[in-house]
Design goal:
about 350 residues, alpha/beta, 6-stranded mixed beta sheet
């Protein structure tokens, strides 16, 4: 399934049905009087979340979604049927914004939200009957519905975001620590969509990890795929900053680490005035040196000392391929997540 995380659409609630102008006509009742019923209410626009979908691909084909209009009132004081509501199913974590960027509703933790109310139905002529005006020949037309242009923006909900350059081993790591089965190969941009995995760290402890693709130097300016997917780590509590320690990519591991952190800072700068934005660069990071199975002990020790000097903390050293130190790393990660929850 194609991954779609941003869609612009128009939503409209239903118009209220018009009231009816009718007069009672029955045998032995020559002056039965007005009996026009009220029009039905227009349908509402309801946003509902589902944990069974993870993309906006089903919404994208149409540019406009409208609830049903209310039906016209009828004679014998029969009210017209209400219009059917429009229920738009979106993934959990979807944010609805105006085209100017203002948040309308954030569907994180919300199962259902009535976005637009349908118009009220018009009153039939029976409603306007009085002792003075016993045969009104008019009825209300019914209220107009509401209409709005919105941008739907999907942000994945995860406890941990895995960040790092292409080929750092993000997909291999998430496949090792969870049941996720992403595509894995040795060339840039293997992962074209974020992957989610549930990691079990004990009988009663689990957390969600997101593998965020496409971060390269210049990502905040649109280079590679980074600008498209950086928003997916906005909801994460902390980051696994995965670094290719092998040097087989031809890049310097320390420079990769600094380049990614620079991209986070620049992304923060671009989005600092955005409503509801929480900076990325200040969040806790687990610095993880991957592919240590390709290094000797002396090489690894030197690299760890360099990272400790730059980051201020001891980096973790693992091999996502062989599984070395993975179990201990997961336990420490789980402890940090529980600490973040308590705070």
């Amino acid at each position: 399934m194609k991954f779609i995380d941003e869609v612009k659409i128009t939503l409209a609630s239903g118009r209220g049905g018009p009231g009816c102008v009718s007069y009672r006509r029955e045998s032995l009742m020559p002056r039965g009087g007005p009996d026009g019923g009220d029009g039905g209410k227009g349908g509402d626009v309801i946003i509902r979340t589902s944990k069974h979908i993870n993309s906006l691909v089903d919404i994208r084909p149409n540019k406009r979604y409208a609830a049903q209009n209310g039906h016209m009132g009828m004679g014998r004081q029969k009210a017209g049927p209400n219009g059917e509501d429009l229920v738009l199913i979106v993934p959990q974590g979807t944010v609805l914004r105006t085209l100017e960027g203002e948040i309308i509703v954030d569907m994180t933790g919300i199962e259902e939200h009535v976005l637009l109310k349908g118009g009220r139905g018009g009153k039939g002529n029976e409603f306007f009957k009085t002792s003075v005006n016993q045969a009104p020949d008019y009825a209300q037309p019914g209220e107009e519905g509401e209409e709005i242009e919105v941008k739907l923006e999907l942000k994945l909900i995860a406890d941990v975001g895995i960040i790092g350059f292409p080929n750092a081993g993000k997909s291999t790591l998430i496949s090792r620590i969870s049941a996720a089965k992403p595509k894995i190969a040795d060339y840039p941009f293997t992962t074209l969509t974020p992957n989610l995995g549930v990691v079990k760290a004990g009988d009663y402890t689990s957390f969600v990890v997101a593998d965020i693709p496409g971060l390269v130097k210049g990502a905040h300016e649109g280079v590679g795929l980074g600008i498209q997917f950086l928003k997916h780590i906005e909801r994460t509590r902390l980051f696994i900053h995965l670094v290719d320690a092998s040097g087989m990519s031809g890049r310097d591991p320390l420079q990769d680490f600094e380049d990614i952190n620079y991209e986070l800072k620049m992304y923060d700068e671009k989005n600092k005035d955005k409503e509801g934005f929480f900076p990325l660069a200040t969040r806790p990071q687990f610095v993880v040196l991957n592919k240590i199975d390709t290094l000797g002990e002396t090489q690894l020790l030197k690299l760890k000392n360099k990272f400790k000097e730059v980051s201020g903390s001891e980096p973790y050293a693992i091999s996502a391929v062989t599984g070395k130190n993975i179990k201990e790393f997961i336990q420490e990660l789980a402890r940090q997540i529980l600490k973040e929850e308590e705070e």
